[in-house]
Amino acid sequence: MAPSRESLYDALGVPPGARPVDIERAYERLVAEFRKDTTPPDPRREARIREAYQVLSDEQRRAEYDRLRQAPPPASDRRRIWVVGGLAAVIVVVAGYFAFGRSAAPGKPERGVAEIQADLVPSLGRVESFDISGKATPTGFAFTIANGVMATTCTGLASGAQVVVTIGTRAVPARVSASDEALGLCQLAVDGAGSWPLSLGAEPRAGDTVYAAGVGGTGEVVLVEGKVKRVFSEAQARIVEAGVPVGPGMGGRPLLDVQGRVVAVATAAQPGGDARHVTVPAGWSDIPTAR
After folding, report:
1. What is the pTM of this model?
2. Which residues make Cβ contacts (< 8 Å) with residue 106, sequence separation at least 6?
């Protein structure tokens, strides 16, 4: 008989009776493990860990999961349910990599700042551009949108320049693989990094709470809370103005909703100090890749 699939508790390395704080700590420990230079990429395991955390950190979803675990189906139904469950697991993995163009189900409660930060740790980095003399110029931030692909602003990324993305304390070579002049956004091919894509949220509205995500001097993820002031069209883009601090070198900084989904990307500052962000259309991660 084939071994049964590991439980969500096994995926996080906690017992079924684990407290919420134990689940939180286990998830953060595993995220930190994937940040290490010595840890090889394992997209399937990372997707399973994310799935486990999303279910077990939600009281209602965890209760339903526990109920199903304690009530195995009749023998005649096991093969059918195993097949359906296997397909569902594949869908979860695939959805994790292409979630940048999807919105989560409405009506979900707000997530905590610590939980959002934990998701960002392996998905957000600083970008530097190196000229022919080897001089490094910080250009802003980049965040993961697909396996091995990160999004950033095109500002400061000169043609032919070498690019490095630092995720946590790990510096990873990258290259501009595609660009969208209308949005002012570029895609970076980041080999060996960027395996935890961030999902894309719906366009925000005036008054919505948002978080500007950045990386501190020692590699820690920083969230700054603010409110959306207005959303409007400009040329071919949708612009979001938010009341969050902005300064030099913050291009490419993702703006997140209360679920931790990307709703826009920082491009520039208004004279009054408000941050300008451009929304990212669904399917943008599928724009043609430069060869």
Report:
1. 0.62
2. none
